[in-house]
Amino acid sequence: MSLLYPPLPLPGPVTATNKSVSSPFCIHLCLPRRIRGFSLVLAVLAIGAFLYTWFFLSSSAHRHQDDIVIYLQDLLHPGGSSTPRFHEWHEREKRLPQHNPDLPFPQGREGRYIHFSNHVWGVGWGNAMQELLFNAHLAYLAKRTYVFDDYTWDKTSSYFSSFNDKRIPARVPLTALLSGPVAGDPFPPSTNGVPAVIPEFFNEVCPNRTIIDRIEVDGALPDASAATLLQAWLDKLEQTEDRCVEIKEYSGQIFNYLVFGDSSRLLDIWPSISKSPIITHFSWSPLILAALVANAQVIHPALSSISPSSFNPSASTAPLSGLLALHIRRGDYIDHCKTLTNWYAHFMGFNEFPGLPDRFIPPPPLRVGNASEEDQAQYRVHCFPEIEDIVRRVREVRASLSSTTQLRRVYVLTNGKPQMLEELKEALQEDAKKGGMPVWEHIGTSRDLVLTSEQKHNSQAMDMAVAQRAEVFIGNGFSSLTSNVVMLRAAQGLEWNTTRFW
Ligand SMILES: *[C@@H]1O[C@H](CO)[C@@H](O)[C@H](O)[C@H]1NC(C)=O
Ligand SMILES: *[C@@H]1O[C@H](CO)[C@@H](O)[C@H](O)[C@H]1NC(C)=O
Ligand SMILES: *[C@@H]1O[C@H](CO)[C@@H](O)[C@H](O)[C@H]1NC(C)=O
Q1: Is residue 420 within 8 Å of 330, Cβ to Cβ?
Q2: How far is the CA of 399 from the centre of ligand 3 (A)?
Q3: Domain region containing 186
Q4: Are residues 497 and 359 in the same domain?
Q5: Mean pLDDT, the chain, as a whole number?
Q6: pTM over 0.90
């Protein structure tokens, strides 16, 4: 997909430890006085580089998003331990060309907008991502411009919040995670979609607006399916004349975790959303793509020549040949698995597409809240597999696909400890040898990547991007991260037998 208008310069490496490569945006804010003189020289150089790059990217011969990745690759410097603020990404969002009130209808101050102020926050990226794609699809069908918010951990006015006593960014600009129509990129021309805008612009062009409490519509529809909810909201919005609509903050989500957790409520929306430009032209941000390029040798060499369109499900790009991606949740997930057992939970909705070969049938929910040891054990194999469970499953899947697929490399999406991962690597190689299969050419993990601090904070998105494109994926059926991967793989139409679960 080529750009319809000249791309904006991309943010520099503000969060790298090496301050001498600081972005020209924040010289006076970010640097101590004694190195400002030096910085000024650098700033002049950097601005020159910016202008050159802008000119380079704007010239029609080079108007391909691929160039952005190459450009970023040189700008990003690995390392950095400070908590990222993503300041430049915010600034860049403000400069997107749709943020001009004078643009003619359907944009600008005559445009029709919808802001989902009720969106989820304070949850993991996987949960936030699934909801925002659905909201953006609803906006698209309702012919209203989608207002995209930050991925919000905390609604505090500070830049920072905390998690497990660690300082983390309170918000991440969506454009640092995603690209495509959901994050303000142009829609494909045939769709007549209007580029999404940020809340600041919505506030400017919609000082007055109709606020709809979610419960006005959903209250009458307890346990409704996703398609039913979608239609009810389309009807409601059709009856709403005001060109400015906001769904009331704190009124709960339209598509909430109960919908995403239940295939019998979720999957009837698939025929609609899978054809939406929100999904067909979904991609990852230049920040994520740059991380993949920089770490291609750890993951898969073919990643060194990617473009945003390589991740559009509609582009049907060939998978990363021979790559097996494994999603292994560790740490406090063990407690989550116990909770899931006590609920007798099913797999997440998208992890129960009828075509998927691996099914999980929960044991009869005889002891809700106090599951037996046997029931706990039954869940653990699928939710928190131990090394021997992982090795056995990898062997089964590799062998079952060997007539069509030669798996040669492994990439592990994980928050596991380095020591456990070293043991896993050894066990996988050992098992391949014992079973008479070729040893793995390379086994990489999330822990082996070299990332800037901005990328590190968004590494879940990076992991999803790898799993989306892997030739074969073994995921965790209870995880929303896995379910987003499964959704993207399904949207691309990959063979069902290449998407598996523990
Ligand atoms: C918004 O509403 C207020 C109060 O009703 C009104 O005075 C103002 O002119 C409206 N602004 C716009 C831009 O419609
Ligand atoms: C949970 O089950 C065990 C038997 O496995 C029983 O001893 C215990 O009292 C039960 N606890 C509750 C709160 O029901
Ligand atoms: C996987 O599914 C595809 C399509 O149904 C089929 O052609 C292929 O043979 C299957 N592979 C294996 C190893 O079963």
Answers
A1: yes
A2: 13
A3: 102-280
A4: yes
A5: 87
A6: no
